[in-house]
Amino acid sequence: MRKLDGFVAKALYVYVLAMGFFHLYTAVFGTFEAFLQRAIHLTWVLPMAFVLYPLVPFKKDQLPDTTVPWYDWILAAASAAPGLYIMINYDQLMMRMQGVDELTTAQLILGTMLIVLLLEATRRIVGLPLVIVALVFTVYTYVCDASFLPSVLRGVPTEFDRIIEGMFLTDEGIFSSSLGVSATFVMIFLIFGGFLEKSGVGEYFMEFAQAFTGTAAGGPAKIAVVSSALFGSISGSAVANVYATGSFTIPLMKRIGYQPHFAGAVEAVASAGGQIMPPIMGAGAFVMAALLGVPFNKIMVAAILPSLFYYGAVLLMVHLTAVKDGLKGLPADELPSKKAVFKRLYMMSPVVLLVYMLLLGYTPMYGAIAGITLAWALSLINPTLRMGPKKVLEAIHDGSENIPIICTACASAGLVVGSVALSGIGFKFVSAVISIARGNSLLALILIALVSLILGMGLPTTSAYILGAALGVPALVKMGFLPIAAHLFVFYYAIVSNITPPVALAAYAAASIADSSPNKTGFAACKLGILAFIVPFAFCYDPGLILQGVLTENLTSLISGIGALTGIAFALTGYARGPLPLWHRTAFAISALAALYHHPLLSMASVVFTVFLFMLSKPKVVEVTC
């Protein structure tokens, strides 16, 4: 990313600030019609890709540019032209009939320009994998009758001008609902994050985690888990979460005796899980609500138990590892006092207010605006954190400047969504999955999980989820799974791809801080986050795990989930009240998996058996020297 200075830097600051104010205005007073709102949003963001991101990424030992080359100014201007055309001719475009009216030469040129420039912007900001996926799907739509394709993939090709029409002039391509989420919810929540940072709420999350977990066995690791759960729920980015909290927690973990790869793995798992932790869950959850056509609070409620199980298992494994290895916590005098932190518990109120409003059924945008207002009001209490006009503008700017990666990723994912709609490959994929699975729903889930993991390698979670949802969810729904369970299943595997080698972005980011082997860190992260690989299968069969059953089903699922996470933690760490032999660990693992099986009697029996196994374990013998 370029580090601009002088007049250009000041002009860009004003440009980004104006974009933030525009989105705040539409959040408060209502957005424009969906297609127009998305066009304005992309037109505002896309030029930033060419101004801020160079043609060739900087090397580590290379100083960033402080100026923008002439050719990038041309590309920036060109990238704004298609959107400006839509704004100027919006009424006329809304009157045209898709598939009937011919495209004008100007529309054909501008649509082609938009696709090419969007792919180049995505390459610069997001990376090559998403560009390749989007390009393959788009080209397939044009050549899907080619003789070199397997017969199962062949179809009726779409003419070039109709591809441009579908991608450029409709809300089923680039300007689909995925970009709509970026243009509305994500933008406001990024600004909300800016206000949380400037008002001191984000810093309070870390202090809260330090005060209440820092002195316990393995305290720094627990700080990492708790702070990443709190911070990651707001940031929605695993890699950003790793760098935000890991730069503090990983050195502390290494200091008390955790091995570097394990310290990195703890941070990677905790940071990745922030995207499945309500209330915000990252941009993907907003896309999910849009695709399902349900209020966001339903997604939030469904995600509560699985996310708590996930973090509960990680915390327990961190604790057991610390006790097994004799790792102590940090001295109390190095940490904030619990009393002082508890007195400032009101600092949590912006997030509490957001959750309350979401549960009441208010839109996420109204909830975020309320949270922004309250965060600003809280800052006035503390003179050192008080947000005057300058800090308010900085919060809006700092939040808004993070939008390019999400906006370009969502727009490029729209190329895939549009290609699926135009080519009909989605139906072919559904047929292929059902054909291979031969009625076996478990095999179908495994196939979709593998597809989601592969799509998630090197892609942002939101993009990976959109692609997985476009291909995999229809197949799972046709197999009889609940739509919300199918979407959450794909979402989970898009997220855990961040910690799954060979391409595990969150684990690699943590490894760079921990100075450890990336692959060793990745495999350790997979072990710590094992529940994220298992629970999605369980909640597809057991609606109670996502609170979609009746009260008794939900309670049974809660108890069985607790039994499963404890059994898995004991089995993987090899420690309960003391070291466990292999047979004991195996019994814990079998009992944990049985607890997740959707049969109330078996689940409860497994939980009881897990308790019995725990009591059967021998306490660790502590040697006392005189």
TrEMBL record:
What residues does the TRAP C4-dicarboxylate transport system permease DctM subunit domain cover? 114-552
Establish whether keyword DNA repair is in the entry: no
Please list every transmembrane segment annotated in the UniProt record, as residue ranges: 12-32, 39-58, 70-88, 100-119, 125-153, 174-196, 223-244, 265-293, 299-320, 341-359, 365-385, 405-427, 439-457, 464-484, 490-511, 523-546, 558-576, 588-615
**Alphabetical UniProt keywords:** Membrane, Transmembrane, Transmembrane helix
* Pfam families found in the cross-reference section: DctM
This protein is called what? TRAP transporter, 4TM/12TM fusion protein
Q: Does the UniProt entry include the keyword DNA damage?
A: no
Q: Which InterPro entries match?
A: DctM, TRAP_DctM-Dct_fused
Q: PANTHER family, from UniProt?
A: BLL3936 PROTEIN
NCBIfam families hit by this protein:
TRAP_fused
Signal peptide span = none
